[in-house]
Amino acid sequence: MDLNQITLEAADFDASVQFYSKIGLKLIVLSEGRYARFESPSGATTLSLHHAKTPGIGNTLLYFEVDNLQARYDELIQLGIPFETAPTKESWLWEEARFSDPSGNQLCLFHAGGNRRFPPWRLNFTTDT
Fold it and tell me: Of all residues in the chain, what percent carry a pLDDT higher than 70?
C-alpha cells in the first residue's frame, strides 16, 4: 500500500494554488477555480486542492521533508512565506519550522534524517513462524 494523494479544501483557491507553487510543488492538474493537483519534487504522493466556500480546517498537519531545512526556510522567507516558528531542533530529534497556507491548513517543513523512520524509540516487531 502507498499513500497516493492528500486533498485540502481551499477558500481562496487562486491564492492557494499560487502558495503551493511558490513553496516548490509542481502543478500537474488545474480545473480553474475548482481543483488543482501538485507533485512534490521527489516522492510519489500528490497534494490536491478543492475549492470550498467554508473549508473544514481541522487539526491535520502536513509535513514536507527537505534536506537542508535552514536553506529552504530562508528561501521561502525571501519569497514572502510567513512562518509561525523558525527552524527548531525538537525533542523527537527532528528540526522543524511551522507555517500555514492561505486557508489556514497547518504545514511543517522538517528534516529528520534517519530519525524519520528509525528513531531510537522505534518498536521492533518480529514474527515467529
Answer: 97
Nine-digit cell at 119? 528513531
Residue 37 has pLDDT above 60, yes or no: yes
SS3 call for 16: helix
Mean of pLDDT values over 93-111: 96
The rounded radius of gyration (Å) of the Cα atoms in the chain is 16
What cell does 114 get?
534517519
Instruction: Tell me how far apart the alpha carbons of residues 47 and 36 are, in angstroms, rounded to a whole number.
Output: 8
- Tell me the average pLDDT across 27-33: 94
Q: 105 by DSSP, 3-state: which?
A: coil
- Helix or strand holding residue 22 (H, E): helix 13-22
Q: 56: which residues sit within 8 A by CB, 6+ positions away?
A: 9
Return the pLDDT at 32.
Answer: 87
In this structure, the number of other CB atoms found within 10 A of the CB of residue 21 comes to: 13
pTM for this entry: 0.86
- Residue 114 CA, distance from chain mean position: 19
Q: Which amino acid is at 42?
A: S
